[in-house]
Amino acid sequence: MSESPIHDIFIIGGGINGCGIARDAVGRGYSVCLAEMDDLASGTSSGSTKLIHGGLRYLEHYEFRLVREALMEREVLWKMAPHIIWPMRFVLPYAKGLRPAWLIRLGLFLYDYIGGRKLLPPTKTLDMRTDPAGKPLKPLFSKAFEYSDGWVNDARLVVLNARDAADRGADIRTRTKVIGLRREGGHWAILLEDQRNGAVEEVKARLVVNASGPWVDSVLAGPLGKQGVHNVRLVQGSHIVVRKKFDDPRAYFFQNRDGRIMFAIPYEEDFTLIGTTDRDYKGDPHDVKISETETGYLCAAASEYFAQAVRREDIVWTYSAVRPLYDDGASKAQEATRDYVLKADDAGGAPLINVFGGKITTYRRLAESMLEKIEAHLGKRGKPWTATAALPGGDFFKTGFDAQVENLKRAHPFLDAGHARRLTRLYGTRAHVLLGQAHSLAELGRNFGADLYEAEVRYLMDDEWAETAEDVLWRRTKRSLHMSEGQRQALDEFMRSVSAEKSAAAE
After folding, report:
1. pLDDT, tens digit, for every residue of 372-390?
2. How crowded is residue 98: how many other Cβ atoms within 10 Å of its Cβ?
């Protein structure tokens, strides 16, 4: 039997950091294998507030380097993926008794001028008595500040990084758990367990990257057997989604009386996303869910601003995630640093590099920093390249989204405007690949509801590692918000049958 190859890099974790590192590394010429114990983006990376932002509130904690790096990334990422990332204007109502106006103006001045802004419009002051942004709010606010940041479909950002990494040669394995890690003759022996069937396999690598997010300490304590590890502070962030509270395309940035901040953001055409919370979390990250206290907090805080109160019965969906912040000893969860820390462990000859903290906006820069550390151990291969390379489907000019929608409609005139726009938002130019040679809706196969057709589901299964209805409905497309329980169940049964057919054919 032939000896299995030794990968240059083995990555634990299929969130944004793991997939971003995999993409950068394989693009420079390293051989890469990545294992994710569940679905891609099934943890922290699909539970964000969906923002590409500098982090205005981080200025209060003097994190100027982090803010500047994040601000510079906004237009870089927009250019890389203009289908899933786009600019958004934020309205920050000025509330007396909270942060003074001069402090907000100073923060927004820095926001406009330290981050290399090019196409994003600058800050301006609004008269809330006449501006449409004041209409959904209580008549308490005469002034607001409007500034620029960006929106991202976070789960798709992860999947597209993984897809590009795989297209360049990386071995991406989902539903694959690392159950053993040992140094052996100058390299790593990694024991993997397939979560579908329990099959166990060993792979080898010269270097291991632990990018397992909230589980980073668990990997060190479990498969590696280290005792008493404590590097990350787990902070729960929860969000609620309600029927839309306003028609304006702008989002709101609200200040709460306890010093925290909160966003209210247009979401999936018909909804408003409200969040987030910040509270320390002590349980298993797999089990995280919104608490009654958090639900009440978000409803009450939003109701301080909206003329029409946000009630529990308005909620159509909630989601929660655990942010693995580097434990810097901050006294409050909202004050813990959002910066990332990379730490190498060279004991025994085979290097291990751990990723602590980070935020979705700076994932690409984190990957570049990781590659500098990898180069120090494995030698330099290619140069940094990701800043100018489009993600799959993003190969069009960043202000050309509407033109792409029209291109898709011309190529497939049977699509209505909403359907064409949705497909372009998710897949960009690859929507043409998904639709193939179809000349009618009937040729897309079975309709599962909410314009989700069989052709799209099969594309997600074949090209984007989707295996369950949850993968498709809550991470890849969010169509579950528009579907009935019966429709969700029908999709689940269909996908199970397709998976069974594939397994039978492979045997």
Report:
1. 999 999 999 999 999 999 9
2. 16
C-alpha triplet 186, 190, 194: angle, nearest 5°: 165
pLDDT in tens, 430-482: 999 999 999 999 999 999 999 999 999 999 999 999 999 999 999 999 999 99
Separation CA 454–CA 463 (nearest Å): 14
Rounded to whole angstroms, what are the CA distances from 425 to 248, 405, 408?
19, 9, 11
Work out the number of other CB atoms within 10 angstroms of the CB of residue 401: 16
Residue 208 near residue 351 (C-beta atoms within 8 A): yes
Contact 350, 207 (CB under 8 A): yes
Residue 47 three-state SS: coil
The radius of gyration of the chain from alpha carbons, rounded to an integer in Å, stands at 23
Cα separation, 503 vs 507, whole angstroms: 6
- Residue 15's nearest CA partner among 251, 372, 355 is 355
Round to whole Å and give the CA distance between 495 and 471: 11
Tokens for 288, please give them: 């995280």
The Cα–Cα gap between 59 and 99 comes to 13
Main-chain phi, psi angles of 68, to 5 degrees? -60, -45
Specify the residue for token string 């008493």: 228
Q: What is the pLDDT of residues 27-67, one digit of tens each?
A: 999 999 999 999 999 999 999 999 999 888 777 777 888 88
CB of 141 closer than 8 Å to CB of 95: yes
Check residue 195 and report its DSSP letter. T
Q: At residue 356, what is the residue type?
A: F
Residue with the two structure tokens 């990723």: 355
What secondary structure letter does DSSP report for 60?
G
User: Can you list the alpha helix ranges (DSSP code H) found in 398-484?
Assistant: 401-411, 417-427, 431-435, 454-463, 469-470
Cα–Cα distance between 53 and 403 in angstroms, integer? 26
At 491 the three-state DSSP class reads helix
Q: Cα angle vertex 171, ends 167, 174, to 5°?
A: 110
CA distance 89 to 103: 20
Q: How far is CA 320 from CA 17, 73, 463, 486, in A?
A: 19, 25, 27, 25
- Residues constituting the chain: 507
128 and 143 Cβ atoms separated by less than 8 Å:
yes
Pairing label, strands 251-255, 85-93: parallel
Q: Is-contact 101 61, C-beta < 8 A?
A: no
How far does Cα 200 stand from its chain's mean position? 30
Indicate the pTM of the whole model: 0.96
Three-class secondary structure of residue 102 per DSSP: helix
Pick the closest to residue 477 from 438, 504, 449, 501 (CA basis): 449
User: Within 10 Å of residue 463's Cβ, how many Cβ atoms?
Assistant: 17
Measured CA angle at 327 (ends 325, 328), to 5 deg = 115
